[in-house]
Design a protein that fits this description.
alpha+beta; 2 domains; 5-stranded antiparallel β-sheet; 5 helices; 28% helix; 33% strand; globular; ORF2/G2P_dom; Replication-associated protein ORF2/G2P domain-containing protein
Length: 266
């Protein structure tokens, strides 16, 4: 268990979190086993529900937890690596059923694996889905070391004057690629695609694709007394703190607080 977590992203960037409460890891005390009723349709044991409002709340909590976990992992992968390109991959109707998430992800996985296998420049990627209002899926990603992907200038530019490129070796639909100028900006940008609506439509399915050669931040945790936490807070806020945020949230009837600190170290 811990109440302080430090993430070192390996590029000089360090994030510290101080919790008002203890975070438990590993084995926890298990609650008493609930009595189960027999399902009248298949005789299998099932939990009897008396409060449907509470059931909906539980579904919401589960959805939120899944979304938070996915966003956290995407953020960590994105921030701990240096990227060359921000890309968008779409699917042509005659190539893939873009309304079928399983079909889209199967074809995408094969393509990514092929590009990784053929790469001579240590191809790295993190890719996430986005769902259109009409239900169609496409994907956004951050790429690095992808000289073998046949990226060429499209002849067009964004409204800000940035050149738009296409990925020549992607044949399943339309692509765009723009050069990454600020790693921090694209890290925040790519996590915004992981929304509650998306989670509802891909429940139980893969939520992002990350190559195995990506870095992850090194995490260190501590369990400190309140006096020690306050001392750490004072030290962090006085030591060239680039960013500080304090967040309050409720778990049942209990209010918790998490404080975030950002630093750059040499």
């Amino acid at each position: 268990m811990y109440n302080v977590k430090i993430k070192n992203y390996g590029n000089g960037q360090v994030q510290t979190r101080i919790y008002s409460h203890l975070i438990y890891t590993g084995d926890k005390e298990k609650p008493e086993k609930e009595e189960l009723e027999s399902n009248p349709f298949d005789d299998k044991p099932t939990k009897e529900v008396f409060d449907f409002d509470e059931l909906e709340k539980e579904k919401e909590r589960s959805l939120y937890t899944s979304m938070k976990r996915a966003k956290g992992k995407i953020y960590d992968y994105s921030r701990a690596n240096v990227w060359d390109w921000f890309v968008t991959l779409t699917f042509a109707p005659d190539a893939v059923d873009r309304y079928n998430y399983t079909d889209c992800t199967r074809k995408l996985s094969v393509w990514l694996n092929n590009m990784r296998r053929d790469s001579e420049t240590n191809f790295k990627y993190i890719v996430v889905p986005e769902r259109h209002k009409d239900g169609a899926f496409h994907f956004h990603g951050l790429f690095a070391g992808c000289d073998s992907l046949g990226i060429t200038y499209s002849g067009h530019c964004t409204k800000d004057g940035e050149k738009i490129y296409n990925i020549g070796r992607y044949k399943m639909g339309f692509t765009t690629a723009t050069r990454v100028k600020k790693n921090e900006a694209v890290t925040k940008y790519i996590t915004k695609y992981t929304t509650k609506d998306l989670m509802e439509h891909i429940k139980g399915k893969k939520k992002y694709w990350a190559s195995r050669n990506l870095n992850l931040p090194v995490e260190t945790t501590y369990s400190l007394e309140d006096v020690e936490k306050q001392s750490l807070h004072n030290e962090l806020t006085m030591d060239d703190c680039l960013y500080y945020k304090s967040c309050m949230y409720n778990v049942g009837l209990t209010t918790h607080n998490v404080r975030y600190y950002e630093h750059v170290i040499s």
